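note to self — DONT lose this again. spent like an hour looking for the file last time. sequence + predicted structure for the chain T wanted, 118 res
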Amino acid sequence: MANKVPNKATDKATEAAERFAKITQNSYRMVVGHAVGLQERNTRFAQDLIEGSIREMRQQAESNLAITQELAERAEEQSDAFRALIEESRDAYRNILYAPFSSLSNRASLYNHKRERQ
C-alpha cells in the first residue's frame, strides 16, 4: 500500500501539471491567434490606406490636369481677345489722329475739283 499512495499523489500531480500545461498552451494559442488576427487587420488597413491614397492622388492629378488644360485654353482666348482689343484701339487711335488730315485732304480734293470745273 505504501507504493500506491505515492503513485496516486504522483498521478494527481501529473494530471494537474498536464492540465496546467494544456490551459497555458491554450492561453498562448489564444494570444498568438489574436496577435495574428490583429496583424492581418493592420496589414489590410495599411494596404487600404495606401491604395486609397494612391487612388486619391491619381484622381487629384487627373483633376489638376483637366483644370490646367482649361486654364491654358482660357488664357489663349484671353490673349486673342487682348490682341483684338489692342488692334481695335490702335485703329481707333489712328483714325482719330489722322482725322484732321483726312478732312483737309478731302477739302483739298473738293477745292481742286471745283477749280477744274471752273
